[in-house]
Write a structure and sequence with these properties.
It is a single chain. By secondary structure, the chain is of the alpha/beta class. The protein folds into two domains: 215 residues, Spore Coat Polysaccharide Biosynthesis Protein SpsA, Chain A (Alpha-Beta Complex), CATH 3.90.550; 195 residues, CDP-alcohol phosphotransferase transmembrane (TM) domain (Four Helix Bundle (Hemerythrin (Met), subunit A), Up-down Bundle), CATH 1.20.120. Helix content is 53%, strand content 14%. The protein contains 16 helices and 13 strands. Strands 1, 4, 5, 6, 8, 9, 10, 11 and 12 form a nine-stranded mixed beta sheet that branches. It has a two-stranded antiparallel ribbon with strand order 2-3. A two-stranded antiparallel sheet has the order 7-13. The longest helix is centred in the last third of the chain and has 28 residues. The two termini are 40 Å apart.
């Protein structure tokens, strides 16, 4: 399958010399996001219709290794319908058509590519409905289409799955009018409509819409599982705010190293001020969510990144508790309890990571596990106890809590996966 990408627009409202398809949103260029997902879903070649800044787009496609064919539109003022018409000799069989300035989440594209004709959205959760192109359907096909319709059935998402016969209607309009819109072509052809509603998609026309898309894509990156109580109520709110501002300037691995550095500093601060150390330790816990958010939002998730983050987290936790134990003046019993707390903290993470290695599945996807003691919860408790100076009580609590959580994890796995 091929995909036609209309990228010849002049983008005058963006106030940038960079073509709109090459603007970054949530750490990736708009064009990269769409082409990467489509290529993973079976699109083998992209027919990209470009305008006056086409050389920049072609260089970008070449740099990122996409298989492409450039079609030049020297008259972009004739409208996006004319740009589409220029691609007529470069597709055969069913093909995808997308706009170069539209952003889609992966789940939307996965469903849309299986559809037929115009992909319509009844809800429009993320767009300004007043500005969107509306579609009225009759017998499952486009009857009327335009921005000024007061009553409508769908919003036009700018995503189409078409066949070459559509170009007959495009040619009729191109030969009879100077300026032709894609909406006119779809209206004349009365293409079928497939509903894909409720997923993220946006048309990026202004800097404000670019910022909105950036924010929404970061917030949609939250994995939605595995977060502890403190992450859900506190950490994630702050980390998402930070990720929205860092996603275009920082890589996931850089975010991991930043969190690690703050964690090491928090451990060493125990020799200066235990309450301050606890607060900085909690800050490192908040920062620990940024790398995953940036990785998912910017399509940079890697096994290495997840592994590195997990390894460095274990170092930070062990170092903090060790330094805290050293400055607490513990006796032999206290050290025994502190070592049990350190070992239990390590085992909480080890049991879930080892589950993934043994069963090739995520523990938090397989189990609805509400037992307290996840890392974010432990660190928040550590901060509170450090602030009031109850270090021995902290080690006692962690020793009991973490090892009970490990026992509960073993019980859950033994109950449901014993025979695997």
């Amino acid at each position: 399958m091929k995909a036609v990408v209309l990228a010849a627009g002049m983008g005058t409202r963006m106030g940038s010399d960079i073509p709109k398809p090459l603007l970054k949103v949530a750490g990736r260029e708009i064009l990269y996001r769409n082409l990467k997902i489509l290529s993973e879903l079976g699109v083998e070649e992209f027919v990209v219709v470009v305008g006056k800044k086409g050389k920049m787009i072609e260089d970008f496609l070449k740099k990122n290794g996409f298989k492409y064919r450039i079609v030049r539109n020297d008259r972009p003022e004739r409208g996006n319908g004319y740009s589409f018409y220029l691609a007529k000799d470069h597709v055969d069989g069913k093909f995808v058509l997308i706009m170069g300035d539209h952003v889609y989440e992966r789940e939307f594209i996965e469903k849309a590519i299986k559809g037929k004709g115009l992909i319509g959205d009844r809800i429009g959760r993320f767009v300004d409905v007043e500005e969107a192109t509306k579609v009225v359907c009759k017998d499952g096909r486009v009857a009327r289409i335009g921005k000024d319709l007061k009553e409508f059935d769908y919003l036009d998402t700018g995503f189409f799955v078409l066949t070459p016969d559509i170009f007959e209607y495009a040619e009729e309009l191109v030969n009879s009018k100077e300026e032709v819109s894609l909406s006119e072509i779809m209206g004349r052809a009365k293409v079928p409509v497939t509903e894909v509603s409720g997923y993220f998609w946006m048309d990026i026309d202004t800097p404000e819409e670019l910022r909105k898309a950036n924010r929404l894509l970061v917030r949609l990156s939250v994995k939605g599982r595995g977060d502890g109580f403190v992450s859900r109520l506190l950490n994630r709110r702050i980390s998402l705010w930070l990720s929205e501002r860092l996603v275009n300037v920082m890589t996931p691995n850089q975010a991991t190293l930043m969190s690690f550095a703050v964690g090491v500093i928090s451990a060493l601060l125990n020799f200066v001020s235990v309450p301050l150390a606890g607060v900085v330790y909690q800050i490192s816990s908040i920062l620990d969510g940024i790398d995953g958010e940036i990785a998912r939002a910017s399509m940079r998730t890697t096994r290495f990144g997840g592994w590195l983050d997990s390894v460095l987290d274990r170092y930070v936790d062990f170092l903090f508790l060790l330094c805290l134990a050293v400055v607490s003046g513990l006796d032999v019993l206290g050290w025994a309890i502190a070592c049990t707390a350190m070992f239990g903290s390590f085992m909480v993470s080890y049991t879930t990571e080892r589950y993934k290695g043994a069963f090739f599945s995520d523990f938090y996807e397989d189990f609805e596990f509400r037992f307290p003691g996840k890392r974010d919860e432990r660190i928040f408790l550590t901060m509170l106890f450090c602030l009031i100076g109850w270090t021995f009580q902290l080690f006692l609590l962690l020793a009991v809590l973490t090892n009970l959580r490990v026992i509960a994890t073993i019980y859950a796995v033994a109950k449901y996966r014993r025979n695997d």
